[in-house]
Design brief:
The complex is a heterotrimer. Chain A is of the alpha+beta class. Chain A is built from two helices and two strands. Chain A has helices spanning about 10-30, 30-45, and strands at about 60-65, 65-75. Chain A starts with 10 loop residues before the first helix and ends in a 12-residue tail after the last strand. By secondary structure, chain C is of the alpha/beta class. Chain C is built from four helices and 16 strands. Chain C has helices spanning about 30-45, 45-50, 65-80, 90-100; strands spanning about 15-20, 20-25, 55-60, 80-90, 115, 130, 140-145, 145-150, 160, 165-170, 175-180, 190-195, 195-200, 205, 220-225, 230-235. In chain C, strand 15 and strand 16 (about 230-235) form a beta hairpin. Classes of the chains: A alpha+beta, B alpha/beta, C alpha/beta. Chains in contact: A-B, A-C, B-C.
């Protein structure tokens, strides 16, 4: 069945993507705005400890069966180590 | 013999709870099981008219609970089957007429005499829904492959878990293969992926259902219809049988005669 | 759309009503810890009023387990409030209440379903009739300042009280009081007149002790004539009033 369906532009795909977002937000009580706010705050806190590239950061709420997960994938910038002493 | 109590619910209205309850009840009764259905709505009657038993109502659920009649007096026996009964809904506006423990007590009385108690829950998440799930051993969530139905079903599944009734089971109703082929309807797989609970049935969109409801003859009783077959399979799966899903995907142009296709390709 | 869980900004609905057995407090939606905190805050704010009060709590959709309910009961008790009932839509909460020895219903004297006339008017203009399109079963009570017309039966145990006339297009086997505000010209009509009790104004109708089964059932009208209630065949011409 998947073979027949064109990948883009069909309304069922849009429905599925919209539902994915809506369900996560219904289940966790987090609106997209709240997630953005949380992401920014997280990045701010994390940058106090390590150097990160904001562009490469991926923080998302995903579905895992009936459970929800906050998944963060944050590449750490390799820093020139300060020589001690 | 202890009955299994199944509540059929959905969240969103109009997705086919009542049709499902009526048809699964009859399918189980056709197998020789003893079945009683309860219309769990408080204030609106649906199950009686879908089953074609609307002219035989004397007493209803609230009459039983408030002690105006005995349980047996409110049970309408469906004469078409061997042992199939209906307890109709009350037409009262009083929301507090029935409490969850009233329903539990009533179902306890039914447990020893029947194999199945099917409760048709009203739509929504309020008292009627809560009453209906209170006695349940299993909750069957009916949904349509459509955004608001799936969203509401998800909410209901969460509430059923919160009320400690365990993971619900899923029935996808009104799947329209033409729309699916065009990419304009969610597939059954999509819905299962989103809701992430165990599937017990897929019922295709079928005009026969409208005709059957008009006649008060639930579609499982008619000659081979797609929906009828699907509901019968749901009953079998509930009884623990492994029934493969009907291939609803007729290959276009190859088989012109639909019923031939069903007869040769069906379960 | 609000930002995330900003429930603190939403007003928690807490309704307090006086009932026969004390107070009924209805709690609205929201996070339970926040709702409970708001409830206790309001009680502490008016501690004198609540001191010694018997309270029934309607928690509606909240799902409460023994721990939550135990804590609630204790905190209420600290404020001098005695919790005797917890009403809820949730089966889980109801089970918890029962387990903790709390009532789950506010008892009513008799299960009564009342249909009240919407009309505020007390005048009996000929057109002002309340139409009831159903059979009235035991426990039903219909009350109106004006006329009442029932399409259906009135079963034993059902009651109708009307300031005006009562017309029953069906079997009258329940109790009817027409002219309840003192109108002695009021009439009662039924396709089958077998009432349990019948009154017009302050007069009480004398009903046959044993209905004569051989007598053919005809529509009848009851009215006051010569100072007492009489029954006549209800024919088109004699429609009364």
């Amino acid at each position: 069945m998947a073979a027949w369906r064109s990948k883009g532009g069909r309304s069922a795909n849009a429905a599925k993507e919209r539902l994915k977002l809506v369900l996560i937000h219904d289940r966790t009580d987090l609106t997209p705005k709240a997630v953005d706010k949380m992401k920014n705050e997280l990045m701010e806190v994390i940058s106090r400890y390590i150097a990160i590239d904001p562009e490469a950061v991926n923080i998302a709420v995903t579905q895992d069966g009936r459970e929800q997960r906050l998944v963060a994938d944050i590449p750490i910038k390799s820093s020139t180590r300060r020589k001690v002493g | 013999m202890t009955a299994t109590i199944i509540t059929i619910t959905s969240g969103k209205g109009g997705v086919g709870k009542t049709t499902t309850t009526a048809n699964v009840a009859i399918a189980l009764a056709e197998q020789g099981d003893k079945v009683v259905c309860i219309d769990g709505d408080i204030g609106l009657r649906n199950l009686d008219v879908v089953m074609g038993l609307e002219n035989r109502i004397v007493y209803d659920l609230v009459d039983v609970i408030e002690g105006r009649c005995r349980l047996r007096q409110a049970m309408i026996r469906d004469k078409r089957m061997n042992d199939l009964h209906l307890i109709p809904a009350a037409q009262t506006r009083d929301k507090s007429s029935v409490t969850p423990s009233d329903m539990v007590r009533l179902c306890d009385q039914l447990r020893d005499e029947f194999d199945w108690v099917l409760i048709d829950s009203p739509a929504g998440i309020e008292r009627g829904f809560r009453n209906s799930i209170a006695p349940a051993d299993m909750v069957l969530v009916v949904t349509n492959p459509e955004v608001s139905a799936v969203r509401d079903a998800d909410r209901i599944i969460g509430l059923v878990e919160a009320e400690e009734k365990g993971p619900a089971k899923l029935l996808i109703n009104r799947l329209n293969m033409d729309l699916v082929r065009r990419g304009d309807m969610l597939t059954a797989e999509d819905v299962v992926e989103l809701l992430a609970i165990e599937l017990v049935g897929i019922v295709p969109e079928d005009e026969s259902v409208v005709v059957s409801t008009n006649r008060g003859q639930p579609v499982v009783m008619e000659a081979e219809t797609k929906a009828g077959k699907a509901f019968r399979n749901v009953a079998l799966r509930l009884k623990g049988q492994e029934v493969p899903y009907i291939d609803l995907d007729e290959k276009k142009g190859f088989f012109q005669n639909l019923s031939n296709m069903l007869r040769s390709g069906g379960d | 759309m609000q930002d995330g869980k900003v429930v603190q900004d939403k007003k928690i609905s807490i309704k307090i009503k006086g009932i026969r057995d004390g107070l009924l407090i209805s709690l609205g939606e929201g996070d339970w810890s926040i709702v409970q905190a708001e409830l206790l805050r309001q009680i502490e704010e008016r501690s004198a009023f609540f001191q010694g009060a018997r309270v029934a709590l309607d928690v509606q959709n909240h799902i409460l387990h023994a721990a939550d309910m135990g804590i609630l009961r204790d905190k209420l008790s600290d404020c001098g409030v005695s919790l005797w009932a917890v009403l809820s839509d949730s089966p889980t909460t109801e089970r918890t209440s029962q387990m903790m020895g709390l009532a789950t219903r506010i008892s009513k004297p008799k299960p009564e379903r009342v249909i009240r006339s919407q009309s505020q008017s007390t005048s009996l203009s000929g057109d002002n009739a309340m139409l009831v399109k159903r059979t009235l079963r035991s426990g039903f009570k219909v009350s109106s300042e004006g006329h009442v017309v029932v399409i259906g039966d009135v079963n034993p145990g059902a009651e109708i009280s009307a300031g005006g006339n009562v017309v029953i297009w069906g079997r009258l086997r329940g109790s009817v009081h027409a002219g309840a505000n003192g109108d002695l010209k009021a009439v009662i009509c039924a396709l089958e007149m077998s009432p349990k009790q019948l009154r017009i104004g302050e007069k009480i109708g004398n009903l046959p002790l044993k209905p004569d089964k051989k007598k053919q059932v005809v529509p009848e009208i009851a009215m006051i004539q010569g100072g007492k209630i009489i029954f006549q065949e209800w024919k088109q011409r004699e429609r009364g009033k």
